[in-house]
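Hi team,

As requested, here is the filled-out complex form for the S-adenosyl-L-homocysteine run. I kept the field names the same as last time so the parser does not choke. Let me know if anything looks off before we queue the next batch.

— J.
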Amino acid sequence: MPAELVFTPPRRAKPPRHLADLTRAERRAVVSEMGLPAFRADQVSHQWFSRLEFDPDAWTDVPAAIRGRLAATLTPDLLTPVKEIACDDGETVKTLWRLFDGALVESVLMRYPKRVTMCISSQAGCGMNCPFCATGQAGLTRNLSTAEIVGQVAAGARALAAGEVAGGPGRVGNVVFMGMGEPLANYRSVVAAARRLIAEPPEGLGLSGRGITISTVGLVPRMRQLATEGMPVTLAVSLHAPDDELRDELVPVNNRWPVAEVLAAAWEYADRTHRRISIEYALIRDINDQAWRADELARLLRGHLVHVNLIPLNPTPGSKWTASEPQVEAEFVRRLELGGIAVTVRDTRGREIDGACGQLAAAD
Ligand code: SAH
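And here is what came back:
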């Protein structure tokens, strides 16, 4: 075979290192290694995290002669916006980002009357293969780095601060790891990203841990580990069925960690953190929306620190499934409430821009 036809797998280069990957001490060490005083790292951190000023030309407290070098070392471009689409009069904005190696991810900013929520991606693609979710259909491309995750929030925070989002200047209140990917399958980067989101500026973005939600299909060992991190973040569990028979199909990783184990790990998380568990349940017509499943769900959850978030199924390409009938949804809610379970139906945003739950597929 001619040499040029021999397949050499692409080298899996790592994303460039960035300020947001590093703690304050690590940033100072990097700058010292450059032969510059360590406090320059604090200045760059202040510009990036406190002022949300990403343009080195505007770092006026740093000598112009070293701005370029500092930026090249500490703030390489990681996320290039490829496409931005909005709906809800500009109050829901989905951004498609190209990463350094061409991988694509999406994030969604949602402005509500009293808060702004950002839905961010933790992986390019997803390996969990849930049949009703568009992200899983193309498989996993790769994990995102900490800075690639934090950068999605920082970009939204900057746009809000600059008044570029409809509704006037604002701040990011909530961050949900509910975009592309399974956060707990990229555990280290996701936990570090959450820490950076919470850390006070200039170390991080200074968001409240209580406003951060990490959503999982139920990777039990990682749920247990997350409970030991000492971070006050909310854990959301994508349950979608109370019985293993159906959940095996809807969330294939259930074959490895069944409902009882996932819920046991969730209760452990609630006990340790005193944070209420959020159970996500996409209502799929004639699949998981029967009254008996509502009763069974209520039975499993009763007596625990928990809240159910029902998500009307969002349409995805190639899926024959659709959302439940309104009266079926109402009956499901009624039965959970009768069972003493706190329940809300998600105010789904971004359906018309393929920006809603399960619709992020990052097509150019
Ligand atoms: N992998 C994590 C993070 C994704 S969060 C997880 O599964 O929890 C996205 C949420 O939207 C999950 O609860 C997911 O199950 C749900 N979802 C996926 N596809 C959906 C769809 N088509 N309609 C409504 N919700 C969906």
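Two things worth flagging: The pocket of S-adenosyl-L-homocysteine is lined by residues 128, 130, 132-133, 178, 182, 215-217, 238, 280, 282, 311, 313-314, 316, 357-358 (CB under 6 Å). The two ends are 35 Å apart (CA to CA).

Thanks,
J.
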